[in-house]
Amino acid sequence: MRAIVVERTDGDDGAILSFRFESITQLFDQGDPAPLPDTELTEPAEEALLQAMWVSSG
């Protein structure tokens, strides 16, 4: 599985974070029976989101 790509663009109004996933299976947990938007994120997706938010705040 390819890594999740995170790009950061800084602007006058703050930072814009862009995420690239190879497929939707990298983003949403396929074992979660809940429909969107209640579907759980995969652990790698959660880690990428949290790390990008932490880096952008520091």
Number of E-type strands: 2
First-to-last CA distance: 29 Å
Pick out the low-confidence regions.
none
SS-based class:
alpha+beta
The run of helices and strands is EEHH
Name the shape in a single word: elongated
* Rg of Cα set: 13 Å
Strand order of the largest sheet: 1-2
Helix content: 25-40%
Number of distinct helices: 2
Summarize the main sheet: 2 strands, antiparallel
What do these coordinates show?
- This protein is α+β, with helices and mostly antiparallel strands and 58 residues long.
- It has one domain.
- Helices cover 33% and strands 24% of the residues.
- The chain has a two-stranded antiparallel ribbon with strand order 1-2.
- The termini are far apart.
TL;DR?
Helices cover 33% and strands 24% of the residues.
Topology (elements, then pairings):
Blueprint: E1 5-11, E2 14-20, H1 24-27, H2 43-57
Antiparallel strand pairs: 1-2
Provide keyphrases for this structure:
alpha+beta; two-stranded antiparallel ribbon; elongated
